[in-house]
Automatic annotation (TrEMBL):
<feature type="transmembrane region" description="Helical">
    <location>
        <begin position="71"/>
        <end position="94"/>
    </location>
</feature>
<feature type="transmembrane region" description="Helical">
    <location>
        <begin position="31"/>
        <end position="51"/>
    </location>
</feature>
<feature type="transmembrane region" description="Helical">
    <location>
        <begin position="6"/>
        <end position="24"/>
    </location>
</feature>
<dbReference type="Pfam" id="PF00420">
    <property type="entry name" value="Oxidored_q2"/>
</dbReference>
<keyword id="KW-0472">Membrane</keyword>
<keyword id="KW-1133">Transmembrane helix</keyword>
<keyword id="KW-0812">Transmembrane</keyword>
<comment type="similarity">
    <text>Belongs to the CPA3 antiporters (TC 2.A.63) subunit C family.</text>
</comment>
<dbReference type="InterPro" id="IPR039428">
    <property type="entry name" value="NUOK/Mnh_C1-like"/>
</dbReference>
<keyword id="KW-1003">Cell membrane</keyword>
<dbReference type="GO" id="GO:0005886">
    <property type="term" value="C:plasma membrane"/>
</dbReference>
<dbReference type="InterPro" id="IPR050601">
    <property type="entry name" value="CPA3_antiporter_subunitC"/>
</dbReference>
<protein>
    <submittedName>
        <fullName>Sodium:proton antiporter</fullName>
    </submittedName>
</protein>
Amino acid sequence: MNATNLSLALTIGVLYACGSYLLMQRALLRVVLGFVLFGHGANLLLLLAGGEARPVPHAGTTAPGEASDPLPQAMAITAVVITFGTTALLLALVHRAIVLHGDDLHASHTLPPPAGKGDQP
């Protein structure tokens, strides 16, 4: 593993860690940002799985063994499109929650606290 792969792996780990932290927040906008960070980490993971950069696979100009594999790049661009569409949907839902409730906090913050032993007469 060379220094580039190591730094990319650490970056992916940081993106996943920050994304999982934001996904556990009560504010819906932070949840959306956590999902976006997860998407960026997944895209980098797909590009890292593709291996090192090699010549473009043109027919007749590059030997089949020397050409780069286009599948990880195709999967990464598909993941970008899916992440973009899902992010747009989540942002629309957050906007609707803000319009209806006035804030973007999850509904669980309005629940009454559980009754304890000292609350009973």
